[in-house]
Design brief:
Distance between the termini: 76 Å
Structural class: mainly beta
Radius of gyration: 29 Å
CATH topology of one domain: Jelly Rolls
CATH class of one domain: Mainly Beta
Strand content: over 45%
Helix content: under 10%
Shape: globular
């Protein structure tokens, strides 16, 4: 019997030794020269939001008809009721097709781009297939030239506007169409414009850009895969699904090829070698030294590991080895917690290809009291084979404070950064806003005095547990917005893609990137002037409105649907911004001075901005800085100077009264309201 046991021990040691030599995790071999490239794929912003349209099937009856349903991969007059004409000498003639492009004596139709010349105007025409009420709308945007547009129903002009700026205009008409009537979309002048109009017989309501899933997003963990140009949005189940219960904290996934529209995607555990954790078995994802997809999760007194070839099927990510320091059997890609640590959770791992080291950050609890006892964010270091030291560096002490949930450690450029969301600093004491600290230039994370570094923030209290994600050569942040405004709830809606960038001093800025700014804008609806607004306390010079009293207002006439507001603001006073009212709810969005500091804020009290959500503005003089405001139903996202951003969940509806508002000495210039894209038409 003793000989048999010795034989088994020898076999085990041989297997272990072989595995150590080939410790890529999950029992798979690897090659040393198959390392991740040091430089990420370089993409343009347009690449991130690429959304390819495909050939539309024939559409009949009461439906939504988009011009693109007629021309994408199809060059045929009348397909899906769209025709291509040119207007010359007050007469409509059909264009001819050549190599997929429609031509008509100088007029050209190339996809959604229409080109006119002075005596031959490009005209899209839609012939009504049935009778019924229809919503006709679109967003012509000029590319060049001196242009104007008309929408004509038979001979009745529904819309007539000059295209005076690159943002274009928005047109919207609800009419009773009679079968056989023709709607003409006419581009007048000389130049080119993009125009993909819609005729909607369904009269569909718009869908907010801030989307959610069945049961709401729990903590999100985005990962962008460069090989497929796909965003993988891993998240935790809140257990609130209506279409079949999913256990709370179960790992789930949605994916997107364009950063905006996400689809439910099934993930699973490998049947033969499942991870030891069967709920949150995939959270933060990273690529290891061999380019394999990996994730880590808390598992009591260590952080466990999972691995995947395709980001869909996940298996155990650890391989056994004998630790020479204590001759104990251990596993690669497990982070064994330091002596004195009672437990730990929320691990995040980053591989630094320059130093060929892994760094893990984790919440460590040092007493059985857990969140109510001694705790810290600790850093563990691992070698290229995924063997981690059990000795940690306590980076930040959180004893007596809320848990620093969903922490991350990242190297951006030549600095290391720690991110976390302290519990209790979010809405009504919820999971907190995203905080971060900046390491010293060129200094490894274990050698940074993190406790002495200033705590800074990337948003306010309504965006919870946000995470930073590398997207090719960019960085973006995503978090969840509580499903009920002004309440402490877990889970909700996803924010719009928010770019994060490094400023000259190493601190971080956030912004709405230029391509998303363009996509959100569906054309001008109104510009502030004495002709369309009730002015009280402002003086006007050209497009600039300067306040001469406290609480000066310039209220637009009428109401607006979901909107995208842009204006330049100057603050030589205490407050400047926008008043938004919907029903009984009123919110103020803008820049405020309070207690010697400046803030970007969304608040229900103009005089008390810190009663709402806010983001401090450091070292920024508010002199002719652009303020952008996305009004997406209940959701507001605000941006100032492409440097600071803020998210808010409000009680607003989808129809707003809008006013410019300012205190003495403050001004607003070029105040424009645009139609905001919705979830379904943003890529039209």
């Amino acid at each position: 019997m003793k000989k048999f046991l010795n034989l088994i021990s020898c076999i085990l040691l041989i297997v272990i030794a072989f595995t150590v030599i080939n410790c890529s995790g999950g029992g798979e071999t690897s090659k040393v020269d198959e390392e991740i490239p040091d430089k990420p794929m370089v993409l343009d912003y347009k690449d991130l939001y690429a959304s390819e349209k495909t050939l539309s099937a024939p559409i009949v009856g009461k439906a939504v008809y988009k011009a693109s349903d007629g021309y994408v991969e199809k060059a045929e007059q009348g397909y899906n009721n769209f025709y291509y004409k040119y207007l010359k000498n007050n007469a409509y003639s059909e264009a001819c097709v050549q190599n997929g492009v429609f031509l008509g004596e100088g007029a050209v139709f190339d996809g959604k781009v229409m080109t006119s010349v002075n005596d031959s105007y490009a005209v899209r025409a839609f012939v009504a297939p049935i009778s019924g009420k229809a919503h006709i709308y679109g967003s012509p945007k000029p590319l060049n030239g001196n242009l104007s547009v008309k929408v004509i129903l038979d001979s009745t002009i529904l819309f007539d506007r000059k295209l005076a700026q690159s943002d274009g205009v928005y047109h919207s008409s609800v009419v009773d169409l009679i079968k056989g009537q023709t709607v003409y979309f006419v581009l007048l002048g000389a130049g080119s414009a993009e125009w993909n109009p819609t005729i909607d017989y369904i009269m569909a309501e718009e869908t907010n850009l801030h989307h959610t899933v069945d049961g709401f997003y729990g903590d999100v963990h985005p990962f962008y895969d460069e090989s497929t140009k796909t965003m993988y949005m891993y998240y935790l189940s809140t257990g609130k699904q209506s279409g079949g219960y999913v256990p709370t904290y179960q790992s789930l996934l949605t994916t997107s090829s364009n950063m905006i529209q996400f689809n439910d995607t099934k993930i699973k555990m490998d049947e033969n070698a499942p991870p030891e954790q069967d709920l949150y078995y995939v959270l933060n994802v990273f690529k290891d030294a061999q380019g394999k997809y990996r994730s880590a999760f808390g598992f009591g007194n260590y952080a466990g590991s999972s691995i995947s070839d395709d980001l869909i099927t996940w298996k155990t990510g650890s391989s056994p080895y004998i630790d020479s320091a204590d001759d104990m059997l251990k596993y690669t890609y497990r982070v064994y917690f330091d002596q004195g640590v009672y437990s730990g959770r929320d691990p995040d791992i980053f591989y630094d290809s320059e130093s060929k080291q892994y760094y893990a950050i984790v919440i460590n609890y040092y007493t059985s009291a857990g969140a109510n006892g001694k705790k810290a964010l600790s850093i563990y270091k691992g070698d290229e084979n995924g063997v981690f030291s059990t000795t940690s560096t306590q980076a930040l002490d959180f004893t007596g404070k809320g848990d620093p949930e969903c922490p991350q450690i990242k190297k951006i450029g030549d600095r290391w950064y720690i991110f976390y969301s302290e519990y209790g600093t979010g809405t009504s004491g919820n999971v907190g806003r995203l905080a971060y600290r900046v390491g010293d230039k060129g200094v490894a994370p274990e050698n940074v005095d993190w406790q002495s570094k200033k705590e800074m923030y990337l948003d306010g209290a309504d965006l919870h547990a946000a995470q930073i994600c590398q997207v090719a050569n960019y960085y973006y942040m995503y978090g969840w917005i509580g499903y009920t405004p002004h309440s402490s709830v877990w889970g909700g809606y996803l924010n719009l893609p928010r770019e994060v960038f490094v400023k000259d001093d190493g601190s971080l800025g956030t912004r709405l990137d230029k391509e998303l700014t363009k996509l959100l804008n569906k054309g001008l609806v109104a510009s502030l002037s004495n002709d369309n607004a009730l002015i009280n306390g402002f003086t006007q010079s050209n497009q600039k409105f300067t306040s001469t009293q406290q609480n000066a207002t310039a209220q637009f006439g009428g109401t607006f649907d979901r909107s995208f507001i842009k204006t330049n603001v100057t603050m030589d006073g205490t407050a400047v911004g926008v008043k938004i009212t919907s029903g009984n709810a009123t919110y103020y969005v803008g820049v405020f001075a309070k207690n010697g500091k400046k803030y970007l804020a969304v608040t229900r009290d103009w005089d008390n901005p810190l009663q709402g959500v806010y983001q401090e503005i450091d070292h920024l003089d508010i002199l002719d800085k652009q303020l952008k405001i996305v009004c997406d139903g209940q959701f507001i996202e605000a941006f100032i100077d492409d440097t600071y951003s803020l998210t808010a969940h409000t009680n607003l509806g989808s129809e707003y009264a809008i006013s410019a508002m300012a205190n003495t000495g403050c001004s607003l210039d070029n105040f424009n309201i645009y139609r905001l894209a919705d979830y379904n038409n943003i890529f039209d």
